[in-house]
């Protein structure tokens, strides 16, 4: 009896042309009931020790099965239904059939909340997803050019970095186990019994490291971005010794391509594949959901697959839900290794950084997770974000107007700048509070923003405010309330409509604008109320300070005080309408907070518009507002008018 037939039966064989020689040790221990029990104990321990991770990105984790065949499993229609049933049982949310299936696009779209996408073309481990005809934006960032080889904006190119192979050519413990099991019907029956009792454990021992495929990927990644995936390619269901097992469900449960996307739609999944927001995992070892890898610096946070400028101190970081052996590679060379659930490394050179997480199973180290790389580049002057310098619009500017009394040393922070359109006829009013972590920044940095909105007929007010840590919260938002009260009293004299006063801000300023509109006692001190606010714009705002101890120098560590300083804890149904904006490369966890805050507003009936900007970071997002073609600026203008 051929060993390959045995592999077909239990769904462990992938196409011979896609399977490369593995790098597992040639002296792997034999697979015995005792060893399977040892592996079982390890997997049970992993489940007990696994800890869920908080939402760190703006993406949801979708498990995917790619390059799934159907032509060898009965009729095409029956095989497709088997794939659908197996995907539902295994928790798979995205399925791509192999390219040699007849009319794969017939199943394109959502079926039972599982997304089916066009066939994945495969050639010797290289993969391509053809263009869909939709208008997908290719990766770009502040002048960085896309370096993906031979890829169209709507297409996708990648490489298979992991699959499961166990045939007569395998020199692993699992391959030897199959050879020995084939010696007689009796030994095969015993092997089947072990597989039925320990299916996940069997697959755990078949998790092998394809060193040749990974090395090729590393080499190609230095020349241009290339997405690494796993293939899901079980063969037909055969019957042997009256045994019939489902290769789709088994393989789907074992090896997955995890796609990080904002929602389960074909355009979003395609974009994630294009940009490499992907990691590969042997899920039978442990559920990896929540895994995060990327880089961060003062510009923002950049997940796996993206390109980022090495701005000041750039950290490469990883988080896993289970302690593992974490290996960081730079251009294919191991540069750092640690044990635990997180890794942090200061990048010193540009290039492709990727992570592998390994677990010790049955006394052997096995690969668990492969991240796609994050690509770091040295910045040039042309790549840095710059505001528009066009200050020639017909705008009148009045600087340094005092809006509050206070200590002499705070006098400059109690002033505001006023940007007035020439046509002053009941114009809407936008009060913008700057960011800077409540500790830095000034109104003098924002003339381009003032001109940008004033030239559109919007009176723009930009106050300064007292800064921490010298001035603790609530000094900053109390100054915001005073600036709002000054505007109510004086703006009609310069053509402003007091019934259309909006408050907004970026980062810390987004927090202040939201809190001003939700915590009624702040405006009550000026005999005003949130009803005087026509709408709120929060750009990458902070809505929940009750999580952790970030910004303790300004907000302290008292949980009740921090809870009261959090806008999300003051939401009521009477709140004014909100525009909540966030961007792809925002600081962690501002994107997740924006989603949660918007949902909380919606749940009590507050009108809220959620705006997402791709390919912008925390700093470039607000700078880009000064440009006429910026999509976020257009969203703000629509909200303000």
Secondary-structure map:
Elements (H helix, E strand, L loop, with lengths): L2 H8 L22 H17 L10 E9 L7 H15 L3 E5 L10 E3 L2 E10 L2 E4 L26 E7 L10 H9 L3 H13 L1 H7 L5 H11 L5 E4 L16 H8 E7 L4 H10 L2 E5 L9 E5 L4 E3 L3 E3 L5 E16 L2 E14 L4 E11 L2 E8 L2 E4 L17 E8 L12 E7 L5 E7 L13 H8 L4 E5 L11 H16 L5 E11 L1 H11 L1 H5 L10 E5 L12 H4 L3 H6 L13 E8 L4 H14 L4 E10 H7 L6 H10 L1
Parallel strand pairs: 1-2, 2-4, 6-7, 12-17, 20-21, 20-22, 22-23, 23-24, 24-25
Antiparallel strand pairs: 1-8, 3-4, 4-5, 5-6, 8-9, 9-16, 10-11, 10-13, 13-14, 13-15, 15-16, 15-17, 18-19, 19-21
What radius of gyration results from the CA coordinates? 28 Å
Strand residues, percent: 25-35%
**Tally of DSSP β-strands:** 25
- Please give the count of helices: 18
Mean pLDDT equals 84
Q: Distance between the terminal alpha carbons, to the nearest Å?
A: 76 Å
Description of the structure:
With 641 residues, the chain is of the alpha/beta class. The chain has two domains: 3-382, no CATH class; 389-640, Alpha/Beta hydrolase fold, catalytic domain (Rossmann fold). The protein has a 17-stranded mixed sheet that branches. An eight-stranded mixed sheet has the order 18-19-21-20-22-23-24-25, sandwiched between helices. Helix 2 crosses helix 6 and helix 4 (173-181) crosses helix 5. The longest helix is centred in the first third of the chain and has 17 residues, at 33-49. It starts with a helix and ends with a helix.
